[in-house]
Amino acid sequence: MGNTPPAAGIRIPVAILRQLTADFFQKADTNPADAQHLADLLTTTDLRGIHSHGTWQLPGYVRLMLEGRVNPRPNIKATSSTTTARVYDGDGGLGHLPCHQAMTWVAETAAKYGTAAATTRNHFHFGSAGKYSRIAAAAGCVGIAISSHRYDLPPESLVKGVNATSPISIAFPNREQPPLVLDMGAHMLPWGEELFAQIPFAFFKELGIGAVNRALGGVLAGIYLPQFIPPTSPWESNQGSFLAAFDVRAFMPLEEFQAQMDAFVAAARNMQPFPGLDRAELPGNLEWQRACEYARDGVPISPQHQQNLQDLADELGVATPFAAYEHTRFTTQ
Description:
Number of strands: 10
Shape: globular
Strand content: 15-25%
CATH class of the largest domain: Alpha Beta
Largest sheet: 7 strands, mixed
Radius of gyration: 20 Å
Order of helices and strands: EHHHEEHEHEEEHHEHHEHE
Strand order of the largest sheet: 2-3-4-8-5-6-7
Number of helices: 10
Mean pLDDT: 96
Low-confidence stretches: none
Number of domains: 2
CATH topology of the largest domain: Ribosomal Protein S8, Chain: A, domain 1
Distance between the termini: 18 Å
């Protein structure tokens, strides 16, 4: 599932998609408040055009809950705390809830003390990293969100496998221009010996990013502690995160920083685009533009995405709104 807009499909208003998502989670026995919160986080990801990590993930999440592999009603708590650092335990549930709670605390604490950080553990997938870094940016901080899954590193496998899909996001406060938000996985290059011979430095840099992400979002987060690994743990709690924020106001007035960031982003967007592209944009710019478009016109849902959700609805007896939006069907081909 790529993050280019669907070439065909229908458009669903985000409020309708959000309620459908909440209905699915409640069928998996989440409590109503958590169902609505998870639905908001997933549909906000869809709204930004990050289609791979929004409601596309919903059928997998719900089925794992129904199978008893992901806790639908986790008791999230901070198990360790200092003035500016915490450890959050996700109690075997989805990572979205503890990571959102942790980054909210991190952003509030950084605004008070200048900086703060937290790790999260004992939870499943946390989705798109950018939704957490943006919490800090909205509070006038530079936000960092890093995660890693618990993957084996077999000695017979190429060291490139260290990268896996460990994501990192860094977000900056913005004002008039679209925000600068890096949101990427460490796995970037397809393996090939000829390609490696041509650009070995690119593979080593990719490896460096992946190793750091795994160390912070995995090892430091505690995902390799034996109590969180089946069969000791009853849950598929194979992911953790490292979340941090730095208050811009500790370095310069926020308004001055935002003005200079506006000038920087505007100048970059006025440069010549890469070949084959019609405009120059920095990371996060397209997500901002898609959020404006999708909020107005509806979230585009591809035929396969629609079918996946319909199949889940048929299994669980959930009514879907798709027929009411057939008139929005589009194709760009």
